[in-house]
Amino acid sequence: MTRKIKTRDVEKGMYVNYLQKGEENMQSASKALEDKGYNSAAVSAVHSAISSADAYCVYGLKKRCASENHNETAVLIGEVPARQGLSRKVKELFESIIRIKNMAEYEERLVKPKEAEKAVKEAGELLSLIKAELTGGNQQG
Known about the structure:
Layout: E1 7-9, H1 15-34, H2 38-61, E2 63-65, H3 70-78, H4 86-98, H5 101-106, H6 113-135
């Protein structure tokens, strides 16, 4: 049985706004990491990943996940038609980054430096991968 994912239709051209959000959050994550603000770095990395994933889905499907369950965003990423293996790689990076979300935002413990470094590194890889795909010379209308 295929589960129904709650989505919102979005005009394809709006993917650029989600990319910009991803880039701005990535800048915040990098700056926070540099300043040893590990909690802020992790949270900004997570939000960069979410915006990057939204850009990917809007570009490829003209919709984004509207569910509060980010595992459903990962499922939607898998539905994006892309060159072989790209959606799988995007999904794997997204899922890895999202694992830290609840801990970083809601739990009582603090984010460890290595956790923040990993989240920022992976969010940067995700953003770069998506940006290269969506803004490269191979765009189709």
